[in-house]
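Input/output pair, single chain:
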Amino acid sequence: MRVLRYKTKLVNKKAVLVKESSRNYPDMPRNQFRRSSDVASFGKGYLHLHDETEEYIYMLCLDTRCRLIALFEISHGSVDTSVISPREVFQKALLANASNIIMLHNHPSGDSQPSSNDIAVTQRLEDTGVIVGIRVVDHVIIGHENCYSICEDRYISESNNTNTELEKENKNDGN
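Output:
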């Protein structure tokens, strides 16, 4: 699977996408994220988030079938916090023409349980996504040994969560 990593830059006072890198991951069998375990495997196996000493937040931009179209590093924080703004998240998602996004970050402490701030930020992102028409499919937190899906604990509303719908679509498409 080829992963395109982007960042945004100002060019003539306008935000534009700039390809930061393009890397092939031959061991990754597909570029679809059907389950939180797929996201966790990507975060651990390719971004190595479980080894980081500071918090990193990434956004996976997905098309309508939840195929990866862009990857953004949203924030690089300290040992126990990282700042995230819905404005910057959705600016990048819109520029990448994403239909869905998945947030992914690590907890350097090793504990993958979400903080109250993690849940509040996810809910703010979900609310903003409803307004701009981009679904927040999940927010996965990587610890040293395990991972946590905010979606699986229903902090993301079931009406916005597309995991079941995606599995049905993928079965119907023969993927």
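The two ends are 15 Å apart (CA to CA). The longest helix spans residues 116-132.
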